[in-house]
Amino acid sequence: MNKPFGLWKRRGIYYWHTPQQPDWRTTGKKSKKEAMEFVLIRLEEMKAKKAEEGLISLHDYIEPFFTWDRCPHIRRLLDENKSITKRYAITRRYLVEKHILKDSLANKPLSKIKRTEILDFRSCLL
To answer: Same structural domain for residues 38 and 75?
Structure first.
């Protein structure tokens, strides 16, 4: 799995960046494990802030779906004692990545997506 951020060690301290924010920022951590934990926490905070502002993109919303450890749909099914296999999740994840995440619609904020764009996207899938 590709990480959504980059780490770089300079003079004993780890720095990080994301494709959306390419400037390198310090983690203040000397060990790689602590730096990765720090960055993951910061990314979750940034995602929560975007969600509060209504600027979460379709890509960010769909990103955890059909990933076995993080998918809310899979968690719900498992909590309800329903059967779901890892193979099913892998197959569905492949379809999400192939058809939805590669489309330009995935980068738009959810609050800005119009009905016509969804209908156009559906037509492309058919």
So the answer is: no
* Residue 1 in domain: no
22: its two tokens: 């390419």
Residue 37 located in a structural domain: yes
Q: What is the pLDDT of residue 3?
A: 66
pTM for the structure as a whole: 0.54
Rounded Cα gap, residues 39 and 116, in angstroms: 37
* Closest residue by Cα to residue 18 from 7, 29, 31: 7
Q: Give me the pLDDT at residue 52, please.
A: 67
Phi and psi, residue 102, nearest 5°: -85, -10
What's the token pair of residue 59? 């890509």
Residues 21, 78: one domain? no
- Residue pair 84/78 in contact (Cβ under 8 Å)? The answer is yes
- Chain-centroid distance, C-alpha 72: 13
Cβ of 29: how many Cβ atoms within 10 Å? 20
Pair 25, 17: CB distance under 8 Å: yes
